[in-house]
Design goal:
48% helix, alpha+beta, single chain
């Protein structure tokens, strides 16, 4: 969490200065506004597809690497960013992606609207 807070401009000590040295809200605010989501949930909700559609435009992709043998078969091994020469997805992947993101938005519409008010 500390590294993520730093990436947002917050220090883990709770005393936060922006680039001009002006005091900002602390880590408590960042913790209140951030909740961890598993890679699996991110993928199942269609967010990996959605993000990769944008990244493909620049020749990048987020890649999920799974174990293909043994007792860990099908388990997530690692996630990394890669350069790619292809752009976009096939029709089936596009259809599945839109369906997943649409279902996510339907399930989470109230929470997403409430997040805007906080």
């Amino acid at each position: 969490m500390a590294d993520f807070c730093r990436s947002l401009g917050y220090s883990p000590a709770g005393v936060n200065l922006n680039r001009r040295g002006v005091k900002q809200e602390g880590v408590d605010m960042a913790k209140k506004m951030i909740s961890r989501v598993s890679w699996e949930r991110f993928r199942k909700d269609g967010m990996l597809w959605f993000v990769n559609r944008l990244l493909h435009f620049f020749g990048y992709a987020i890649v999920f690497d799974f174990y293909d043998k043994g007792s860990k078969k099908g388990k997530l091994k690692e996630v990394y960013v890669a350069r790619c020469k292809f752009r976009g997805f096939g029709t089936t992947s596009e259809t599945n992606g839109y369906e997943r993101v649409t279902k996510y938005m339907k399930r989470n519409a109230d929470r997403l609207v409430n997040d805007l008010g906080e």
